[in-house]
């Protein structure tokens, strides 16, 4: 059985609500080196699907996928660090995800600058990263919409910049 077979079987089982079979097939594929199976195994641990929630195990599998060049692995690692409030690590991993082609990680970086989470609050830097979202080729439509809204919210209109005092 190939790693692709493990992923296909696991996905089918998951769709059927058979989380036990899905996890076991993902795990077999993950151990055989399939990146998608590694991400899915990490996800099961990360969210406690059929297994006890264990973010350390999730990090292990996400890191394996990342080492194989998987951008989702880096993004998922970043999210765990963000949720644990280790913002410096989170920012570093979000940048790794972007470098591997995950344009949606730019939204997370922009939000960190907008909110001052782990970095000095900077609307200018936030807008810079939101604009990168709009120009990146690998971004889901929802992220583009969030970026457009944020740019409008953070960029003063020309009327706002004039001195209105008389």
Describe this entry's structure for a reader.
- The protein is 70% helix and 0% strand.
- It is an all-alpha fold and 166 residues long.
For the sheet with most strands, the description reads: none
Helical content band: 55-70%
- The topology string of helices and strands comes to HHHHHHHHH
Helices, by number, come to 9
- End-to-end separation in angstroms reads 79 Å
Assembly form of the protein: single chain
Regions with little confidence, pLDDT below 50 for 5+ residues? none
Q: Give me the count of strands.
A: 0
Q: What is the average of the pLDDT values?
A: 94
Overview features:
9 helices; mainly alpha; elongated; 166 residues
Structural topology:
Blueprint: H1 3-15, H2 19-31, H3 35-47, H4 55-67, H5 71-83, H6 87-99, H7 105-115, H8 123-135, H9 141-154
Helix pairs in contact: 1-2, 2-3, 3-4, 4-5, 5-6, 6-7, 7-8, 8-9
Q: Quick summary of this structure?
A:
The protein has 166 residues and is mainly alpha-helical. The chain has helices at 3-15, 19-31, 35-47, 55-67, 71-83, 87-99, 105-115, 123-135, 141-154. The radius of gyration is 19 Å and the shape is elongated.
